[in-house]
Amino acid sequence: MSERSFREPRQRGFGEDVFARRPRGFGEPALRRQTLAGPPTRATVKWFSPEKGFGFVTLAGGRGDAFLHASVVEQSGHDSGALQPGVTLSVRVGQGQKGPQVEEVLEIDESTAVPAPKPTLAKRPSAGTDGRRPNRMTGTVKWYSPEKRFGFVAVEGGRSEVFVHAAALQRSGIAKVAEGQRVTMEVAEGRKGLEAVAVSIAG
Question: In this predicted structure, what is the pLDDT of residue 136?
């Protein structure tokens, strides 16, 4: 064997070359290549929509908000329907493509949820009025249709006609009125003119 052949470096085999040049992380699960989630931290649900499938939480310590996807909640074994505003979470947060995002939900404390505001029913004026004080008027029923549930009363003196709806009759304890019948009404200015607020049969 010559000195040249003895000193010639050993060539790598085909298999050795392939594995030597294999990129780092080749064949590893995608999750392993992502930034590992940080330690457990407290967070408060800012808002979350089960219909949209995502929401945001506010991280403790003034660290800002983090994105939370419904799939993360489900994979952690929790119900996304419990994520009402104010609910406290224990989470692990990682860095997503658009900023901090929750990678794992460890605990959910629903006791801190903000109670939903109760709907307030505004006190509405009598139907068809604009809140002005009703005026008392007497007139004669011009026509009334039980099927259409409304009619008109001609005010004495021929000044005007007053719209009468079935709701006003019901409030007054009257089932219906007939054409030519005299009635006394509490009348107010409605959206389409004078409207009866209350009706009574005139003696």
Answer: 87
